[in-house]
Amino acid sequence: MQGRRIAAATLFAAAGLLPWQALAGPEGTYAMTGTNPGDHSPYKGVVEVRRTGETYAVTWRFGKDETHGIGTLAAGSDRTFAVSYDAGKSHGIALYELQGDGSWSGVWSSMKGKALGTELWRPNDGRKSATTAKSTANVPASAATPDGKGAARR
Q1: Model confidence over 115-125: pLDDT tens digits?
Q2: DSSP letter (8 states) at residue 40
Q3: How far are the Cα atoms of 3, 36, 108, 111, 129 from residue 115, in angstroms, in the given order?
Q4: Considering only CA atoms, which of 69, 68, 84, 74 is closest in space to residue 54?
Q5: Whole-angstrom Cα distance, residue 94 to residue 108?
Q6: pTM for the complete prediction?
Q7: For the chain, which domains are there?
Q8: Nearest of 130, 115, 105 to residue 41 by alpha carbon
Q9: Measured between alpha carbons, how far is 40 from 55 in angstroms, rounded to an integer?
């Protein structure tokens, strides 16, 4: 009996060494609002995050335009999420933190950027969130894209 307890304790301890398998992660669909770097003009869209092993595929949708990225959780944390994205003519990075209501709040910039934009993702896939019920319909958008030029994150 003692041997079984030790074996069970060892198994649970070993499971703790595989944090990427145990973490809840950011996967899901989100209603997104944000501001552009520099002029802080607002935008909105939808973000989808899919787990692809130890990393995550991230897709931002702004009307008909899409931006794709790859993300990872910070080592040993399920509350900090870093994403590198490619928008065709521009590349950049974003860093998000999980909020108590299930939303993700962060900052981003393009490769040549000297200022930060902001972004908030609100769960849109059935998870409970105090902010999910709030409408984003009143958030003005410049052609529904971050830069107001009809192209996502360029």
Answers
A1: 999 999 999 86
A2: -
A3: 59, 9, 9, 11, 30
A4: 74
A5: 4
A6: 0.70
A7: 24-144 (2.40.128.120)
A8: 115
A9: 30
